[in-house]
């Protein structure tokens, strides 16, 4: 009934929905799950179990207990609560939320560049056409 988790930069539960890029040192806490989630819905997310070998549960629990009461550097992009959880489970800190956000951002950037190139090409075409008339 307990969870070990990394707090966000303001001492609250960390959240990937934060718009700014919080950076700071935060406590690793062990709390009752229901104190952490309150009335929010929650699920167990062992997302990478199909492609990665999770560490044995006793290793995860022992490592998590060793971290309780410590502080960790927190950066929503480089090391957030999801990185913390995947590092404990798979020995590799990853955040699919961050990876997806990067893909979306790069996709939007690519779209912006494409639209910009099309606009410039159109303007050049229009300028050349006008100069012929």
Automatic annotation (TrEMBL):
Q: Which residues form the signal peptide?
A: none
Keywords (A to Z) from UniProt: Hydrolase, Lipid metabolism, Membrane, Transferase, Transmembrane, Transmembrane helix
Quote the InterPro entries the UniProt record gives.
H-rev107_PLA/AT, LRAT_dom
- The LRAT domain, residue ranges: 1-97
Among Gene3D superfamilies, the record links this protein to: endopeptidase domain like (from Nostoc punctiforme) (3.90.1720.10)
- Any one Pfam family here would be LRAT
What are the transmembrane regions? 104-125
Cross-referenced PANTHER family, in alphabetical order? HRAS-LIKE SUPPRESSOR - RELATED, PHOSPHOLIPASE A AND ACYLTRANSFERASE 3
**Family statement drawn from the similarity comment of this UniProt entry:** Belongs to the H-rev107 family.
Q: What's this protein's name?
A: LRAT domain-containing protein
